[in-house]
Structures are given as structure tokens and as C-alpha cells.
Structure prediction request, 394 residues.
Amino acid sequence: MLRIQTVLWTFFVVLSVAVGADFKPRNCSEVREASVSKGFSFENVPLQEISGEHLRLCPQGNTCCTSEMEDKFGQQSKWEFENLVEETSHDLRSTFVSRHKKFDEFFLELLENTERSLNEMFVRTYGKPYMQNSEVFQNLFAELKRYYTGGNVNLEEMLNDFWSRLLERMFTLLNSQYIITEDYLECISKYTDQLKPFGDVPRKLKAQVTRAFIAARTFVQGLSVGREVANRVSKVSSTPACIRALTKMMYCPYCQAMPSVKPCNNYCLNVMKGCLANQADLDPEWNQYVDAMLLVAQRLEGPFNIESVMEPIDVKISEGIMNMQDNSVQVSYRVFQGCGQPKPSGMGSRSTRGVSDVFNARFRPYSPEERPTTAAGTSLDRLASLSSLSIHVR
Prediction:
């Protein structure tokens, strides 16, 4: 019996020594070095572990952290996390910024080039009659630009108004032997749809221009929305709960004299999910947005291609003008029937100034092979193709 008691007593003594050895304060030099490498200047980092009763987040056993260290770890966790989110989203934000800039430059330059081309060709083709009425065409391009840049423009009404103004000007030129008053012009405009003086050109052009400009404006505005969303999402405002979770995961190992210990994957993911909960809520809407943008990009490459609509617009308008020329006698007769015979101007009979004297040339056929690339760097087909790839970020 005495022998058994002696053995047990010896065992407890040995166990006590072992337990005491386990709780011997550890050296904190590794924590000091790791802290300095992180940019901290902790002159008061303990040389060895102290009691952690003062800690609020990290374990309160033996620790290498003071209260000041724990507070600064929290600040560092917040700064590192928010900067990491911003850096991670940099490529996405840059993509939207660059694509929006390229498309915007492309479309605006396309409008400028088209207007300049029309002006040069109409001056060469129609001369003085065009130059005296060029504001009709200038207004057309000004309204197209205003619509593209977000203005409140009804494209169909605007295009109808353009053809009405053009009819008024052409009717006046082709009937210069009469006095055409403002009231008479207003009467003429009421008969535009019935007369169809420009043939089927206005109807076809209206459909092409409307769908092309809607697609172009939608796409560029969509890129702008994507850019703004990416910018806002990249600016994370960490909640107190998120900061606490980040500090526990990233810096509490420092307090336990294990600065090199990294969190396991699942632990890290759970913390990130909590900190990025608001961003995660955007995921379904973001995927819908990307799908919609890809659909518009596909349409830009097909029948909604604004480039293929705008570049030959001078030829199409000229075709309408030629239709008016060819049918000028019938058009004038029907106008006189509906609006009455205007008073003679005393400038002689119409025969002294025929249609061929006013409009004496026709446009050359438009060749798709002549489509130029703009200074924005490339054609619309290539831009849309590149953007289809670059915005497809899930």
C-alpha cells in the first residue's frame, strides 16, 4: 500500500512539473519582428508573454499583445481589407473606364465624320441650294448627338420633322415662281405622310436610325453604369463586426506568439462572406446586367450597327431628294390641290428654272468596303467584339 502511494505521489509531482513547463511564458521576439515587418512600431511589445486579461478580442490567456497593440491590429485589419478589395477590383474598373471612353469617342467621332462627309458631298453635288439650307441637316446631326449623349429626344418625331423641313425647303426651291408663305409651308407639312415625296426612304431610314441609336446609347450608358457600380462596390466600409472578425483571424495569432500561422481556407471564406455580404447581394443583378450587355453588344455587330447606318446616310438622304425631284410635278400638283394655288412671285415661269438647274447631280453608290476606321482606333465590329469578351466578368 505504501509503495502504491509513493508511486502515485511521484506521478503527480512529475505531472505538476510538466504542466508548469507547458505554461512557461514564451518569448515574444518573433512577434516583435513580424510586427516591425508590417510597419508597426511597437516599442512596448512584451519581451515574453504576459497575462491577457486586458484583451477584448483575442484570447485572454498568456499573450504577446498589449491593449494598444490589439487596437492597432484592428485598425490595420480594416485598412488592409479595404485596400485589398479596391486593388482586387482595379482591373474590372479599368476595363469599364477604357471601354466606355473608346465607345464614346467612337460614336461621337462617327457622327462628326458623317456630318462632315455629308456636308462636303452635298456642297459638291447641290452647291448653293444646299448651302442656303444646310441648317436643316445641321439640326439633324445636332439632335442625333443630343439623343446619343442622353438628351430627351424622340427619335421618330425628330426624323419626321427633318423630312417635313426638307420637303418645305425643296418645295420652295422647286416652285420659286410662287410666293411660299409660312402658313403655306405649315399646310405642306401636314401632307407629308400622304404625299410620300421622298418615296420609302424616310420610313426605312427612321427604322434603321432609331434601332441603331437606341442600341448605341443603351450600350454606352450600360458601360457607364457598370463603371459606377464597380467604383462604388470597390469602396468597402467595414462594419465593427467585420473588423472584429478580421482582427481575430489575421492578428490574434500574433498575440499567441504565432505570427506566421495562417487561417484555414473555410475560416477565411466565412469571414470574407460576412464582410462582403452587401456585395454578394448584388451577384444576381450583376449577372443579369452582364447578360443584357452581351446581348446589346451582339446587336451592335448585326442589324443594329450604327456604323453601317450612319456612314451611307448621305446617300440615303440623297435618294430621297432624287425621288422628290423625279416626282416634283405630281407633288406640287397634289399640294396645290390640298393647300391652294400660291400667288406668283413675278420671277417668271417655272420653265425658266427647271429641276435640273436646282439639283443637277446624283450621288455615287455607297461601297461598304470604303468604311473608314475612326481615330478612336478601330471599327465598331471590333470594339463590340472586344467588349463582349472584356465585360463578361462573373
Observations:
- The mean pLDDT is 82.
- The chain has two domains: 30-89+236-280, 96-233+287-390.
